[in-house]
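Give me structure tokens for this 617-residue protein.
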Amino acid sequence: MRQVVTLFLLATLLAMPAACSGKAAAPTAIVPVVQPVSRSTVAAGVAVSTRQASATPTSPVVVEYDKDDLTVASASQANVSTVKLAGDGISFVGKGAAVKGKVLTISSAGTYSISGKLNDGQIVVDTKDAATVMLVLNGADITNTTSSAIYVANAEKTVITLAEGTQNTVTDGAKYVFPDAKTDEPNAAIFSKDDLTINGSGALTVVANYNNGIASKDDLKITGGNITVNAVNDGIKGRDSIVVKDGTITVKAGGDGLQANNDEDAKKGYVAIEGGTLNITAGMDGIQAETRLMVSGGNITLLTGGGNARKAADSAKGLKAGVALTVTGGVFSVNSGDDALHSNNSITISGGEFLLASADDAIHADATLEVSGGDVRITKSYEGMESNKITINAGTIHLVASDDGINGPSTSSSGGAMQGRPGPGGFESGDSHLTVNGGYIAVNALGDGIDINGAVDMTGGTVIVNGPTSNNNGALDHAGFKITGGFLVAAGSAGMAQAPDTSSTQYSLIYNFASAQAAGTLVHIETKDGKALLTFAPAKTYQSIVISSPEIKNGSTYVVYSGGRATGTVADSLYSDGTYTAGTQVASYTISSIVTGAGAGMGGMPGGRGGTRPTRP
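Here you go.
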């Protein structure tokens, strides 16, 4: 009986919530970032979309809240004008508005309490004042069959307050009537040409039969309320920005769930989510920002493009940013018919809990992807994580991929487009780069476990790869892998097997079995005096095993066993805190170089060699 303990790995696991119990990391509580009442700051990307006319600012995006964004107006407060809807008529008591038929036009700033039901009418805001119009929906049901039910034609700002304990409904028709062929606005059930804020604690249901649900051509803020939107196109749209501070938002949209689409000003076109609960079902993207998408808190559930069963024909990404996606907190559940998290440039994750299932890539950034915290669980993907430059500093990552687990494609010299791996016999050279400085990474991939068209540098952390069964892929596929610290174990097929290379300062072992080993067959490596280095039960059929650890010493002799029995806790196929009962000894060799290999048909070349890959969905 041999004790199953890897000292370095044990120390690494003890430092991480995921492995303290020897089990996969359980989601941990996320405390939303508490923002000041008047202002919040969210990190911003610095790159710029080619569609944008001006440079993206290098300073963070600062979301400012005016007092009226957070002030919940009441129908009982002083100087409130009263609007009572009565089917085919409107009664108005107060000042600053006029009634014509079934249309109320508000011409002055102030507070207006609206209650009752209006059949095929409209609330219009058209003011010249440099002050805010407050609309208190106090049990209002407004329908317009040929236009927006609430239309802000002109205002400094409009705040819609959902009165406590009330249910409010806004509905439009399937066809709008415009004054001429050149006019195409308003085009949403609630439409504002200027800044719009929704607050309060009441409920609002928006049924958009023509186009969008709630739309602002400037900034749109949601600081409270229970809001449900059903829209044939986009659910909630703020051209310049969307900010969600609090509230419960449920969207069912034929197009995008939330969208900010200003592509002319690099300082605009952003989405910032600081809290609240969002449940979005979208035919296309769940949350889409033309420039930056920033999440610091909240509970976000997204179903896009029908889910992960097959690749959507249109863009159906979960979280999508044109320039930068930044996540510092929040809880995410994404089931997407396209990439779950996507940026045309950069993604930065420093916190949050993620449960991702995608018909394409789970996390994809064209240029850079950096993970410095959080708990990422990818249950289904084509490729788990993909970017030209990937840096992992901290956090817990578990991923399942039908092709490559972590993929680093090159960029072309001409247009910067990401290029996939070469065909059979080609080398994985390129400008992509993976850096692992820390964290816990567990990969289960049918293609390459880690496929980098360029170099890999590993200085710390834990990397566990359950790799491919097919010989045209490998658990590791790279054009140079320098390891100076951390713990690495990778199991997979032998045809393309690679280990870290001789530029490393930490020692590595690679062993190829004479034949494929059944899934779950233990491989155990120990020193000649019985000190355990590795006890591993790969999740799939395998023929090659690679290990690198600070415990591997030059001049030491290591014995490799196959089969046998083990006790203890198992995390991602790796045993700890138990004992090993020996199976069959298959090798014994002494470390004499940075990379030591043995076994049948050794690959282990430092330069990666390409193979075929499944067709991208």
